[in-house]
Design brief:
Distance between the termini: 90 Å
Strand order of the largest sheet: 1-2
Largest sheet: 2 strands, antiparallel
Structural class: alpha+beta
């Protein structure tokens, strides 16, 4: 049996339990169980207070933790909502267009309408310099209405 000297931190409690088991051969077996109980540290007490505060009022604790990030989380939420909305609108439009172009008569009709509108737009706004200036003025007016005057 070996004996060792160990140092224990201040405030630690050392408990030693000794168990003796009688064997039929005559030699008893001695088992010593030594436990050291440490006092809680300041970090542990702080963490324990946070955990108990969370379990006492989880919604209040979470809102208190997330409150400094309210503006950022709101912006991220709006971006996610806009992305989901755009995806939904584009999915519906894609489905409608897919159905419309699957009808044999409508597909060539849509192509003809596109060609005619493109020709009219070029004739109306892009042929001469004065027409291009007029288009530029209309675009600037639309931007100032939509975005605001700078």
């Amino acid at each position: 049996m070996s004996t060792g000297i160990t140092q224990t931190p201040e405030g630690a409690q050392v408990k030693t339990e000794t168990t003796v088991i009688e064997m039929p051969t005559g030699d008893p077996i001695v088992i010593q169980n030594t436990t050291i109980e440490m006092p809680p540290s300041e970090d542990w007490l702080r963490d324990e207070a946070r955990i108990s505060a969370f379990f006492d009022d989880p919604i209040g604790y979470t809102s208190g933790v997330l409150n400094p990030y309210k503006r950022i989380l709101t912006a991220v939420g709006w971006v996610l909502l806009a992305t989901a909305g755009a995806w939904l609108v584009l999915s519906v439009l894609s489905a409608v267009l897919s159905i419309a172009t699957s009808i044999p008569v409508l597909s060539p009709l849509f192509e003809l309408i596109g060609i005619v509108y493109t020709g009219w737009f070029i004739y109306r706004y892009l042929l001469t310099s004065s027409q291009r200036q007029e288009l530029s003025q209309k675009i600037d007016a639309f931007k100032s209405e939509f975005v605001g005057k700078s």
